[in-house]
Description:
Blueprint: H1 2-16, H2 19-41, E1 48-55, H3 61-71, E2 80-85, H4 90-102, E3 108-112, H5 116-119, E4 123-126, H6 132-153, H7 158-164, H8 185-219, H9 222-229, H10 232-263, H11 265-272, H12 286-313, H13 317-336, H14 338-343, H15 348-355, H16 360-370, H17 375-403, H18 413-422
Parallel strand pairs: 1-2, 1-3
Antiparallel strand pairs: 3-4
Helix pairs in contact: 1-10, 2-10, 3-6, 8-10, 8-12, 8-13, 8-16, 10-12, 10-17, 12-13, 12-16, 12-17, 15-16, 17-18
Amino acid sequence: MREVMIIIRREFLERVRTRAFVLGTIAFPVFMVAVFVLPRVMADGPVERHLAFVDESGTGIGDRFEDFVALGEATGSGNRYTLERVPGTFAMLRDSLNARVQREEFDGYVVLPADLMTSNRIMFRARNIGSEQVVRDLRNAATEAVQAERLRAAGLDRADMTELLKRVEVDDAAITGSGAEGRSAESTFIFAYIVAFLIYFITAVYGASVLRSVLEEKTNRIAEVLVSSAHASRLMLGKVVGVGSAALFQVAIWTVAIVVMATRSDLIAEGIGVPPEAFAALSIPASQAVLFILYFALGFLLFAALFAAAGAALTSEQEAQSVQMPLMLPLFLPLLVSFRVTAEPMSTMARVLGIFPLTSPLTMPMRIAAASIPPGEIALSLGLLALGLLVMSWIGGKVFRIGILSTGARPSLREIVRWIREA
C-alpha cells in the first residue's frame, strides 16, 4: 500500500504544480463570468439606419408604417430608423435609389408595393443586409401597418383588438422532491448542460492524461523500473487515483467559485450589470451536489482505467490519437441528445442511457437536474456504474500488467483477449 500512496502523491503533485493546471483552474471561472458579461460589454447597442421609403400602396398603410418604425412601437429592438419618403413609383426610382445607396446617401430603401394587401410582401434593399434584426423590425412594422388597415376596413379598433389578442406568457418552474418550486425550463437545460459538459471535459482531459502518462513511461522504458519496485496493478491504481485526485481538486476549486457566485449573486450582478436571476441556475441542493460528485468520481475512475489499459497496450503517440476519440464516444453520446434527455428525462432513451455504465456519468446528472428521479433508479444506476468500474478495473489491470512491458507492434483484439485470460 505504501507504493500506491507514493505513486498517488507523485501523480497528484506532478499535475497540480504545472502552469497548465493553474491556468486551467483560473480559466473556467473566468469563462463562466465571460459568458454572462461579454455579450453585454461587446454589444454594439441599437443600430441607426437612414432609409429611403417608396409607398405605392395608396391606402394609408405607408403613414402607419412610418409611425410604427419611427416610434419603435412594432420593432421593440431599440434600433432607430429615419425614413425619407421619395415620391414616385419604384419602376421610375429604382436606378436613382440604387445609385444613392451606393453613394451612401441612404443605408438602403423600403418599398411598399401596390398589391401589399394581397401579396403580404414588401421590398428591402441595402448595402448591408447581414442584420437579421433590421429585417425583422421592418417586417414587424409592415405587418402591424397592414393589420391595422385591415381592421379599419372591417370597422374594428386596433387598440381593442391588440388587447383582446394579447399573448399569454408562461411562468414555468419545476416541482422539486420537497414540493418546492425549482428552476424554469430554460435555466434547467442550461444548468444540466453545464454539469454534463464539465464532467465530459474533465474526464476527457484527465483521462487522456492517464493514457499519455502510461504511454510515455512505457515508450521511455521508465515502466520497467517502476514495475520492478511496485506491482503492475498497484502502479495502475496509483496512476488512476493520483490523476483523479488532481481532477477532483480542480473541480473542488471550481465548486467553491460557483458557490461564491451563487451566494453573492446580488453584489456580482450589480457590479457586472447582469440580472440576479441569471445566477439562479447555479444554485443546487446539497443532495444533488453529492450525486453529481459521485457520478463524476465513479465515471472518471471507470474511464481512467479504460485509458490506462489502452495506454499500456499502445506503442506510439499516433496510435493514442487514433484510439482516444473512440474511447470517448460513450461519453459524447449524452451530449448529442442532451435536448431530448432534459426535455423528456423519464423517456425510455433517457432511462437506458442513465443506467448503462459508460453513459450514465453524464446522462444521470442531466436527468437529476431536470426532474425528480426515483431513488431506486438512481441506486440502480450508481450500483451498475460501480460494478462497471470494478469490471473495467479488473480487465484493465490484466491488460496493464502485460501491456506495460510489451514492445513491438500494437496488439490485436485477439491478443488483448488472450492477455486477459492469461494474466
